[in-house]
Protein backbone atom coordinates (compact mmCIF):
# COMPACT_ATOMS: atom_id res chain seq x y z
CA UNK A 1 0.00 0.00 0.00
CA UNK A 2 1.48 3.37 -1.05
CA UNK A 3 1.21 6.13 1.55
CA UNK A 4 0.20 9.47 0.02
CA UNK A 5 0.64 13.02 1.35
CA UNK A 6 -1.56 15.66 -0.30
CA UNK A 7 -0.32 19.26 -0.25
CA UNK A 8 -2.91 22.05 -0.38
CA UNK A 9 -3.18 25.81 0.08
CA UNK A 10 -6.86 26.45 -0.54
CA UNK A 11 -10.28 24.87 -0.77
CA UNK A 12 -8.95 21.38 -1.23
CA UNK A 13 -11.54 20.09 -3.68
CA UNK A 14 -8.89 18.08 -5.53
CA UNK A 15 -7.61 16.75 -2.20
CA UNK A 16 -11.14 15.58 -1.39
CA UNK A 17 -11.48 13.88 -4.78
CA UNK A 18 -8.13 12.12 -4.27
CA UNK A 19 -8.73 11.16 -0.65
CA UNK A 20 -12.22 9.80 -1.34
CA UNK A 21 -10.92 7.72 -4.24
CA UNK A 22 -8.35 5.86 -2.13
CA UNK A 23 -10.53 3.09 -0.74
CA UNK A 24 -11.11 -0.60 -1.37
CA UNK A 25 -8.61 -2.19 -3.75
CA UNK A 26 -6.93 1.15 -4.51
CA UNK A 27 -3.15 0.71 -4.17
CA UNK A 28 -2.73 3.86 -2.02
CA UNK A 29 -4.11 5.57 1.07
CA UNK A 30 -4.06 9.23 2.19
CA UNK A 31 -1.90 9.51 5.31
CA UNK A 32 -1.29 13.25 5.55
CA UNK A 33 -2.75 16.53 4.29
CA UNK A 34 -0.21 19.32 4.55
CA UNK A 35 -0.78 23.04 4.00
CA UNK A 36 1.56 26.03 3.96
CA UNK A 37 -1.19 28.16 5.53
CA UNK A 38 -3.58 27.51 8.40
CA UNK A 39 -6.20 29.38 6.38
CA UNK A 40 -6.58 26.52 3.88
CA UNK A 41 -10.24 25.54 3.96
CA UNK A 42 -9.31 22.06 2.87
CA UNK A 43 -7.72 21.31 6.25
CA UNK A 44 -11.17 21.06 7.83
CA UNK A 45 -12.29 18.67 5.08
CA UNK A 46 -9.27 16.45 5.76
CA UNK A 47 -9.95 16.42 9.48
CA UNK A 48 -13.57 15.52 8.82
CA UNK A 49 -12.27 12.47 6.93
CA UNK A 50 -9.97 11.47 9.77
CA UNK A 51 -6.82 12.23 7.78
CA UNK A 52 -3.90 13.63 9.82
CA UNK A 53 -3.12 17.26 8.93
CA UNK A 54 -0.05 19.46 9.28
CA UNK A 55 0.48 23.17 8.72
CA UNK A 56 3.97 24.37 7.86
CA UNK A 57 3.60 28.12 7.52
CA UNK A 58 6.14 29.43 5.04
CA UNK A 59 6.21 32.95 6.50
CA UNK A 60 8.47 32.48 9.55
CA UNK A 61 11.10 30.95 7.27
CA UNK A 62 11.37 34.05 5.08
CA UNK A 63 13.91 33.45 2.35
CA UNK A 64 15.17 30.25 3.94
CA UNK A 65 13.26 27.85 1.72
CA UNK A 66 15.47 24.84 2.53
CA UNK A 67 14.58 25.27 6.23
CA UNK A 68 10.87 25.44 5.31
CA UNK A 69 11.25 22.28 3.26
CA UNK A 70 13.21 20.54 6.03
CA UNK A 71 10.22 21.09 8.28
CA UNK A 72 7.92 19.62 5.62
CA UNK A 73 10.27 16.65 5.31
CA UNK A 74 10.05 16.08 9.05
CA UNK A 75 6.28 15.57 8.70
CA UNK A 76 6.70 13.34 5.64
CA UNK A 77 9.15 11.15 7.51
CA UNK A 78 6.93 10.99 10.59
CA UNK A 79 4.07 9.72 8.41
CA UNK A 80 6.27 7.40 6.36
CA UNK A 81 5.09 8.98 3.10
CA UNK A 82 5.83 7.28 -0.26
CA UNK A 83 4.14 9.66 -2.70
CA UNK A 84 3.24 13.36 -2.73
CA UNK A 85 0.26 14.78 -4.61
CA UNK A 86 0.33 18.57 -4.95
CA UNK A 87 -3.29 19.72 -5.15
CA UNK A 88 -3.55 23.49 -5.35
CA UNK A 89 -0.34 23.93 -3.34
CA UNK A 90 0.54 27.54 -4.17
CA UNK A 91 4.15 27.49 -3.14
CA UNK A 92 7.12 26.78 -5.38
CA UNK A 93 9.42 24.04 -4.07
CA UNK A 94 13.19 24.18 -4.56
CA UNK A 95 15.18 21.86 -6.78
CA UNK A 96 16.56 20.25 -3.65
CA UNK A 97 13.09 19.12 -2.60
CA UNK A 98 11.78 18.22 -6.04
CA UNK A 99 15.01 16.28 -6.73
CA UNK A 100 14.59 14.27 -3.54
CA UNK A 101 11.03 13.36 -4.56
CA UNK A 102 11.48 13.00 -8.31
CA UNK A 103 9.37 10.16 -9.65
CA UNK A 104 7.31 10.21 -6.46
CA UNK A 105 5.56 13.60 -6.66
CA UNK A 106 2.62 14.64 -8.86
CA UNK A 107 0.92 17.97 -9.53
CA UNK A 108 -2.30 19.05 -11.20
CA UNK A 109 -2.24 22.18 -13.31
CA UNK A 110 -5.32 23.85 -14.82
CA UNK A 111 -4.16 24.06 -18.43
CA UNK A 112 -3.21 21.77 -21.28
CA UNK A 113 0.53 21.84 -20.63
CA UNK A 114 2.90 22.84 -22.11
CA UNK A 115 0.52 25.77 -22.66
CA UNK A 116 0.11 28.30 -19.86
CA UNK A 117 2.50 27.38 -17.09
CA UNK A 118 2.08 29.51 -13.98
CA UNK A 119 -0.97 31.53 -12.95
CA UNK A 120 -4.15 32.89 -14.61
CA UNK A 121 -4.35 29.98 -17.02
CA UNK A 122 -8.05 30.39 -17.85
CA UNK A 123 -7.84 34.12 -18.54
CA UNK A 124 -4.84 33.47 -20.79
CA UNK A 125 -6.62 30.71 -22.72
CA UNK A 126 -9.62 33.00 -23.28
CA UNK A 127 -7.43 35.89 -24.30
CA UNK A 128 -5.61 33.73 -26.82
CA UNK A 129 -8.94 32.78 -28.43
CA UNK A 130 -8.41 29.06 -27.74
CA UNK A 131 -11.31 26.75 -28.49
CA UNK A 132 -10.44 24.24 -25.80
CA UNK A 133 -8.89 24.20 -22.36
CA UNK A 134 -8.26 21.55 -19.77
CA UNK A 135 -5.99 20.25 -17.07
CA UNK A 136 -2.82 18.23 -16.79
CA UNK A 137 -1.39 15.89 -14.17
CA UNK A 138 2.39 15.67 -14.37
CA UNK A 139 5.39 14.50 -12.43
CA UNK A 140 7.08 17.34 -10.57
CA UNK A 141 10.61 18.29 -11.56
CA UNK A 142 12.70 21.34 -10.68
CA UNK A 143 11.06 23.45 -13.41
CA UNK A 144 7.66 24.96 -12.63
CA UNK A 145 4.68 23.13 -14.21
CA UNK A 146 7.02 20.95 -16.22
CA UNK A 147 7.91 17.28 -15.92
CA UNK A 148 6.56 14.16 -17.63
CA UNK A 149 2.85 14.40 -18.43
CA UNK A 150 0.77 11.58 -16.95
CA UNK A 151 -2.70 12.65 -17.98
CA UNK A 152 -4.80 15.35 -19.58
CA UNK A 153 -8.51 16.14 -19.76
CA UNK A 154 -9.95 18.56 -22.28
CA UNK A 155 -13.04 20.77 -22.14
CA UNK A 156 -14.51 23.01 -24.81
CA UNK A 157 -14.34 26.77 -24.42
CA UNK A 158 -17.86 28.11 -24.91
CA UNK A 159 -19.05 31.44 -26.16
CA UNK A 160 -19.48 33.85 -23.27
CA UNK A 161 -17.07 31.96 -21.02
CA UNK A 162 -15.35 33.98 -18.32
CA UNK A 163 -12.26 32.83 -16.42
CA UNK A 164 -14.65 31.76 -13.65
CA UNK A 165 -17.05 29.70 -15.79
CA UNK A 166 -14.13 28.07 -17.56
CA UNK A 167 -12.36 27.34 -14.27
CA UNK A 168 -15.48 25.61 -12.95
CA UNK A 169 -15.76 23.43 -16.07
CA UNK A 170 -12.06 22.50 -15.88
CA UNK A 171 -12.26 21.81 -12.13
CA UNK A 172 -14.93 19.16 -12.74
CA UNK A 173 -12.46 17.38 -14.99
CA UNK A 174 -9.63 17.83 -12.50
CA UNK A 175 -11.70 15.85 -10.00
CA UNK A 176 -11.94 12.97 -12.49
CA UNK A 177 -8.45 13.10 -13.95
CA UNK A 178 -6.36 13.37 -10.80
CA UNK A 179 -7.80 10.32 -8.99
CA UNK A 180 -7.60 8.26 -12.19
CA UNK A 181 -3.94 9.17 -12.74
CA UNK A 182 -2.97 8.70 -9.10
CA UNK A 183 -4.49 5.23 -9.10
CA UNK A 184 -2.48 4.21 -12.16
CA UNK A 185 0.68 5.89 -10.92
CA UNK A 186 0.49 4.23 -7.49
CA UNK A 187 0.35 0.86 -9.22
CA UNK A 188 3.42 1.69 -11.34
CA UNK A 189 1.64 2.61 -14.59
CA UNK A 190 3.08 5.83 -16.04
CA UNK A 191 1.44 5.74 -19.44
CA UNK A 192 -0.38 8.92 -20.35
CA UNK A 193 -4.14 9.00 -19.70
CA UNK A 194 -6.44 11.07 -21.92
CA UNK A 195 -9.91 12.08 -20.72
CA UNK A 196 -12.70 12.11 -21.56
C1 LIG B 1 -7.08 23.83 -9.02
O1 LIG B 1 -7.63 24.44 -10.13
C2 LIG B 1 -5.67 23.42 -9.31
O2 LIG B 1 -5.50 22.91 -10.59
C3 LIG B 1 -4.99 24.74 -9.15
O3 LIG B 1 -5.57 25.29 -7.99
C4 LIG B 1 -6.89 24.82 -7.87
C5 LIG B 1 -7.04 24.18 -6.53
O4 LIG B 1 -8.36 23.95 -6.20
N1 LIG B 1 -3.58 24.65 -9.17
P1 LIG B 1 -8.70 23.03 -4.93
O5 LIG B 1 -7.94 23.60 -3.73
O6 LIG B 1 -8.28 21.62 -5.25
O7 LIG B 1 -10.18 23.16 -4.75
What would you note in describing this structure?
- The chain is an alpha/beta fold and 196 residues long.
- The chain has a single domain, classed as 3-Layer(aba) Sandwich (Rossmann fold), CATH 3.40.50.170.
- 34% of the residues lie in helices and 23% in strands.
- It is built from six helices and eight strands, in the order βαβαβαβαβαββαβ.
- It has helices at 13-21, 42-48, 65-78, 95-100, 121-127, 163-186, and strands at 2-8, 28-35, 53-55, 83-86, 105-109, 132-139, 149-156, 193-195.
- It has an eight-stranded mixed β-sheet, sandwiched between helices.
- Helix 1 (13-21) packs parallel to helix 6 (163-186) and helix 5 crosses helix 6 (163-186).
- The structure holds 5-O-phosphono-beta-D-ribofuranosylamine.
List segments where confidence is low: pLDDT < 50 over at least 5 consecutive residues.
Answer: none
- Major β-sheet profile: 8 strands, mixed
Residue share in β-strands:
15-25%
Order of helix and strand elements from N to C terminus:
EHEHEHEHEHEEHE
- Shape descriptor reads globular
Characterize the quaternary organization of these chains: single chain
Radius of gyration: 16 Å
CATH class: Alpha Beta
The CATH superfamily name is Formyl transferase, N-terminal domain
- Give every kind of bound small molecule, once each: 5-O-phosphono-beta-D-ribofuranosylamine
CATH architecture: 3-Layer(aba) Sandwich
Number of strands: 8
CATH topology type: Rossmann fold
Cα(first) to Cα(last) distance is 28 Å
Our count of helices gives: 6
What is the percent of helical residues? 25-40%
Total domain units: 1
Structural class: alpha/beta
